[in-house]
Amino acid sequence: MSYLAGGMAISIRGRQASRREAPILVVAPHSSFLDSCIVYATRMSSVIVRKESMDNYVGKLINYTQPVYVWRDDPNSRQNTIKEIIERATSKEDWPQVLIFPEGTCTNRSCLITFKPGGFYPGVPVQPVTIRYPNAKDTVTWTWEGPGALKLLWLTLTQVHSSCEIEFLPVYYPNEEEKRNPKLFARNVRDVMAKALGVPVLDYTYDDCRLIAKAKQLGIPGGASIREVAELRAQLKLDVTNYEVDLIETGLQGSPRWLTLEQFALKMDVLITVPCSRLYKIFVQQPINLMYFPDYLLATLFILYQHEPLSLLIAYGFKIFDGSGMGRLDLTSFEELAARTLNLGPEDAHNLFRGADVEKKEYITYDEFVAYGMKKPELSFVFTRDGSQKVKVQ
After folding, report:
1. Alpha-carbon span 49 to 86, nearest angstrom
2. Which residues form the Phospholipid/glycerol acyltransferase domain (predicted)?
């Protein structure tokens, strides 16, 4: 009634299998909070849902489906969730079917990202279920970037008519190899669903999306391509030696910051191959068509130390932008570093620099930055493992 009152017509194609035929329903793509209509369409199946969703209005309604809640950032919670899914899927009791969005996050429906294997561990038959929104204007997609939930809801309500198509595909029966390998099982089911939807697959995960979002929030150079940077480094075998850290430790004084492709390859001691060229192009700045090497180094360090406090990345940043080799940065160099690691504008970076430069020397050391930052509550996130904030320094 709520969906109909909001002007959304839900059409269902195919037949929902019984719990005996398929204890688990696999739903994709997941792109909107409006996907919650799948609970109604599947006759109140038990949803696997993140714990944060429990606190809102929809979460209170979800509780009636006997859901399985999971903390996405807690590895122990994930294991407990897998255990609960296995118990329900294989139980002789009359549990509702388990409904899972295996992508684990919202996408824009242009592809199917990596399916999490949790719903495939029981090794039981699953029924793939697809969701489409064949509307002239997309007012429902709720992803990492773009309008928030309330704006999307308002835009959807202002449409005269919105459609949602739910299709039940044939039950997928795993073979013996898939039963032993949940990741293979998940990958093969994803391929079937992608073919039915007519979209490609992309090996991105929720963790990749979270890392990209954090990189962009902090202003890390190449943030939107941070996962591709990691892949290309691996293809060039740079992840084995962490060659970039050695370069920084030995000192970059006197080295050119703007590099051609040939200079970059020579600097990294790699051949000019397709991966090398692709990696180079991510950091090329127009119109000069050259790579700014400090940007590449910061992006690499962010990947290497993503689970460490942000202060470690800034410590290396002091070495990267220290042109004198004396362990200190002037205002201009610090502004560069602050923009690329704290996402600070010139005014905020200037205030931070002046606050740390107690003796008015017109330069600061890393230790002086730490001494000042530790006293400022708005900079506390720099010294913890959660570096996903933007600060404004007064």
Report:
1. 16
2. 24-134
